[in-house]
Amino acid sequence: MNSPELAQIATQLESPDLRDRMLALASLRHVEPNDAVPLIKKVLDDTSLQLRSMAVFALGIKPTAECYGILVQILENDPDYGIRADAAGALGYLEDKRAFEPLVRAFYEETDWLVRFSAAVSLGNLKDPRAYDVLLQALDSPEVVLQQAAIAALGEIKAVDAVERLLKFAQAEDWLIRQRLAESLGHLPSPKSVSALKYLEKDSHPQVVEAATISLQRLEKASSQN
Fold first, then answer.
1. CB neighbour class for 131 (10 Å; exposed up to 12, middle 13-18, buried from 19)
2. Where are the alpha helices (DSSP H) in the chain?
3. Global confidence as pTM
4. How do residues 68-100 score in pLDDT, each as one tens digit?
5. CA 118, CA 84: separation in Å to the nearest integer?
């Protein structure tokens, strides 16, 4: 995108009309990160929470050297829990291993479940095995969504040692938990994973059955390649 077009977007981001600002921010999806981030920063403190949320998310998918620091600052200091959750999620998109420590702090210290959920999901996105103990703790959370996030993330970090703990969710009442389990086990090759997936193939919910079948195929393919 050429300079006049970028200048036009910059002007539109300062419009008093929220719709104009949102359209301008959305148009940055086609702009290179180094050109986009200075413009994204213009609306990080916007009066609209919706626009701020979009801007924080955009920092996760337009990575430059400064995005990590900005997102950590937002995660640790923003007064709005929704924006802090957005920052935690965006840090996962960056896939920067430096985010491990701030995400773990957010998981342990945050009081709002949405921020803790985003932190757990992002710990999975980082694919950092150090997240193992944190995610095991999340499995015991009273919040079902945190359990879902932890089940998925343990698969992402290839935590085969967690299979035994995960199997207790094979008969969970929430079918979404059973689906997450089926998906996760596809990344955790072990005889117990195969047995559990064969059990989940007979589940009452079609999406659980489909996820179990796909995971079994994944494990079989991985086994044949070894």
1. buried
2. 3-12, 18-27, 33-40, 49-61, 67-77, 81-94, 100-109, 113-126, 132-139, 144-156, 163-166, 175-185, 191-200, 206-225
3. 0.91
4. 999 999 999 999 999 999 999 999 999 999 999
5. 9
Question: What pLDDT, on the 0 to 100 scale, is given for residue 2?
Answer: 72
Domains 80-157 and 168-226 are alike in CATH topology: yes
**For residues 50 and 16, what is the distance between their CA atoms, to the nearest angstrom?**
15
- The CATH number fitting domain 168-226, selected from 3.30.70, 1.25.10, 2.60.40, 2.30.30: 1.25.10
Q: What's the fold here for domain 80-157?
A: Leucine-rich Repeat Variant (1.25.10)
Work out the number of other CB atoms within 10 angstroms of the CB of residue 19: 8
Q: Which pLDDT score, from 0 to 100, does residue 226 have?
A: 65
Structure tokens at 159: 């935590």
Residues contacting residue 87 through CB under 8 Å, at least 6 positions apart: 56, 71, 72, 74, 75, 78
Residue 78 token pair: 């923003």
For residue range 100-126, what is the model confidence (pLDDT) as tens digits?
A: 999 999 999 999 999 999 999 999 999
